[in-house]
Amino acid sequence: MEKQQSKRETWNSGLGFILAAAGSAVGLGNIWRFPYITGEHGGGAFVLIYLICVALIGLPVMLCEISLGRHTRRNPVGAFKQLNPPACNMAMLFGLGMIFCGVLMLIMRSFGWGLLFTLIGILVTKYRWTVVGVMGVVAGFVILSFYAVVAGWTVGYIGKALTGKLAFNTMESASASFVAFISNPFLSIACLFVFMALCIAIVCKGVQAGIERISKLLMPLLFLLLILLILRGLTLPGAMAGVRYYLRPDFRVISGESILVAVGLAFFSLSLGMGAMITYGSYVSKEQNLFTSTMAIVGLDVLVAFLAGLAVFPAVFALGFAPDSGAGLAFMALPTVFNQMPFGMLWAFLFFLLLMVAALTSGISLLEVVTAYWVDERGWKRRDATLVFGGCIFLLGTLCAVSVQNWDSIRPVQFFLQALFARIQPSFFDTMETASDWMLALGGLLTALFVGWVWGIRLAVDEIRHGSHNFADVHLWSALAGLKDDPSHNSEVHVYTLASVWGVFVRFVCPVAVVIAFLYTIGWLDMGEDASPEPAPEPAAELAQP
Ligand code: TRP
After folding, report:
1. Closest by CA position to 349, among listed 152, 160, 148
2. 310-341 pLDDT, tens per residue?
3. Is residue 106 part of a domain?
């Protein structure tokens, strides 16, 4: 235990932490996943729901995770273990409830879910909250397995840009080329291998020196490039239809499922729900202002996602493509736009390079959680842990990579999952993606419950107060009014402070919101006549003739 404590470093500077955490948050989730999911769920209305999820759920939970990390100075499993109460009614109730549901499901012959629920229930009654940390480590595996596949595509596209193979004039040719690329198992596995090797090499060495410096340099560049892309995209004829689609909410196309997807995406994009921010928070110094850091990280993340959407949708519409064409959206639309700019290949090369860097800073945070657990808690050597588990993730990733188009290449896995879960996703890749949405939402819910009800807001606020006395000791209203330094406007009896608002959110608003999202998704909360899954308003109608 002592060796852990003495090894803990802190970030070089406050900015260093913010950039590292933002590096983890900003990644494929913003530039690849956010636009295509928005496209699949009808545009503007989904963007609005996403923003609400970030503000109401993401922000408070991020503050939970970072303060948990700084307080315990541990990896997620260690953090929950350290604060785990010797007996906890809530955990007991939760565990027994899960066992009960699991047995019910077994009786109803839903074997996969039944076994899963029963198993988790037993673990929860035995280990209580530590299970949340363990779930985070498992989520690290699941997420990185499909994340690395997409990151591999960026590697492949860097190669394509270098060899001038991205000169598409229409979205059709871009899409044909993309499909050919991802359906070639050798190519995508080779690219996956390159990406995982990079992740492993960096995490092996420790994260701080190299990647932090690189991302400090390259992130602003990514930003600039996005702006450039937006300008080009917006000036294409017919682009305004895309802007309208992206920014004008149409709530008729929102279904219950969209809401859990938005919650899942908010957690995913902010790197929440699996302890990545606990791990990063554990390196934060006591002087750091956790509240303003959280705001900065969330702000940067949302900004990049928003800009990415603004780069993608106008282009998609201008080029006459359907916004709901799925996971390849950014890979098809953007190269086609680059091709309409002078020095197209150079821009394409730069863009995919930076996208890969963004993916890398996120990928290492995922691998770091897995590694930190085995190093801290199991006493493995850092090198062995990264190699072994990075290798496992690579193997899981190959399954995702070959199943992207359909299941048929890995029939045995398909049969196995079908036998257990009856309703399955279109591919193993989608299975992992959906599983991660659920795990992150569940992880986030449990983290909020833990901080709000078990560790306690009082102790959490004591932690946050270091470095940020405004958070707990200044009336929110006086702070907003510019009177925060006036003693008569701040009292020892805190009524309405940032801290109290946060506490209410963590204890009530976040858990209730996530639970509602869950109930919506499994269909227990169908509000009257369900929004029939009407297809997204077809873009063709509004398109100007090119
Ligand atoms: N947030 C990253 C992205 O948007 C992905 C990511 C990194 C992540 N670490 C995570 C997601 C931890 C969930 C949990 O691309």
Report:
1. 160
2. 988 888 888 887 888 777 888 888 888 888 77
3. no
Per-residue confidence at 2, pLDDT binned at 50, 70, 90? very low
Q: What is the CATH classification number for the domain harbouring 449?
A: 1.20.1740
Distance CA 122, CA 117 (A): 9
Q: Measured from the CB, is residue 274 less than 6 Å from ligand 1?
A: yes
Would the CB of 215 count as within 6 Å of ligand 1?
no
- Is residue 30 within 6 Å of ligand 1 at its C-beta? yes
Distance separating alpha carbons of residues 90 and 197, to the nearest angstrom: 42
Q: Is 150 in the pocket of ligand 1 (CB under 6 A)?
A: no
Q: Are 312 and 334 in contact (CB under 8 A)?
A: yes
Beta strands in 134-227 (DSSP E): none
User: What is the domain range of residue 401?
Assistant: 2-84+129-521
Binding site membership of 120 for ligand 1 (Cβ less than 6 Å): no
pTM across the whole model: 0.87
User: How many structural domains comprise the chain?
Assistant: 1
pLDDT in tens, 485-504: 766 666 566 567 788 888 88
Query: What are the Cα distances from residue 262, in Å, to 45, 237, 257, 277?
Result: 11, 31, 9, 20
Query: 359 C-alpha vs ligand 1 centroid, how far in Å?
Result: 9
Q: What residues have CB less than 8 Å from 421, skipping those under 6 apart?
A: 110, 112, 113
**60 Cβ neighbours under 8 A, 6+ residues apart:** 448, 502, 505, 506, 509, 510
What is the residue type of 490?
A: N
Percent helix, strand and coil across the chain, each to the nearest 5: 75, 0, 25
Tokens of 242: 């895309």
Name the pLDDT band for 214 (thresholds 50, 70, 90): low
pLDDT tens column, 113-133: 888 889 999 998 888 899 999
In this structure, is residue 107 part of a structural domain?
no
Specify if 486 maps to a domain: yes
The answer to whether residue 105 sits within a structural domain is no
- Residue 445 pLDDT exceeds 90: yes
**Ligand 1, residues 195, 269, 307: which to mutate, most atoms within 8 A of Cβ?**
269
